[in-house]
Amino acid sequence: MLSPAIERLLQDLRDEDSNRRDAATEALWQMWFTQKGTRGLQRLRQSQVLLEGGHLAAAEELLSRLIADLPDFAEAWNRRAVLYFVQERYEEAKTDCQRVVELIPYHFGALHGLGLCYAALEQYREAIQAFQQALEVQPYALANQRLILECTLRLEDDSNPAGPA
After folding, report:
1. CA–CA gap between residue 12 and residue 22 (Å, rounded)
2. pTM of model > 0.90
3. Region of residue 121 (left: phi > 0; alpha: psi -120 to 50; beta: else)
4. Cβ count within 10 A of residue 29
5. How many Cβ atoms from other residues are within 10 Å of residue 77's Cβ?
6. Where are the beta strands (DSSP E) in 34-133?
7. Which pLDDT tens digit goes with each residue over 117-129?
8. For residue range 37-65, what is the model confidence (pLDDT) as tens digits?
C-alpha cells in the first residue's frame, strides 16, 4: 500500500501540466535518494563523485558495501546499475535494475534503465516491455516513447534480414 503522498506524486506524473510533472519527478528522486537519511545520501553522493572522477572500482566497492549494509536501499542498487551500465556490464546492470523494481515497482528510473539494458543486450521485446512499464508511471516521458519505436524497428529489421524492399 502506497502512502497518500506517493499516490499524489504518481498521479502528478500523469498531469498535463509539465511543471507539476517535473515537481513530482524531482520529489520522487529526492525521496529515493534520502530513503536512508543523511548517511545514505552522503554515500550515494560519494559514489557519484568517484564515478565522475573515473574511479569506477572504488565507486563499485562503495555501492556494494552500501547495498550489503542496507539491502532495501533501492537507490543504492539503482546507482550501482548505472555504474555497471556505464561499464557495459549489462547483465549485472539488468539484475540491479530488477532488484530496484522489486523494492519500488514505480521506480521509473530503474524501469527505464532496465529497458536500456535489454536493448543493449539486443533483447528488444523485453526492452519494449520495460519502456512500456516506465511509460505507465511517466506517460509523458518522450525518451521511453522514442526508445519503444527504436526497439520496434530493430525487431522488424531482425525479422527481415534482407532489409527494406
Report:
1. 9
2. yes
3. alpha
4. 14
5. 26
6. none
7. 999 999 999 999 9
8. 999 999 999 999 999 999 999 999 999 99
Single out the residue of 77, 86, 29, 76 nearest to residue 55, CA to CA.
86
Write the single-letter amino acid at 61. E
What's residue 164's pLDDT? 52
Question: If you ran DSSP here, which 8-state letter would residue 55 be given?
Answer: -
> Is residue 95 left, alpha or beta, with left meaning phi > 0 and alpha meaning psi from -120 to 50?
alpha
Q: What is the grid cell recorded at 97?
A: 535494475
C-alpha cell at 94: 539488468
Q: What is the pLDDT of residue 159?
A: 74
Provide the grid cell at 89: 556490464
Quote the cell numbers at residue 26: 524531482
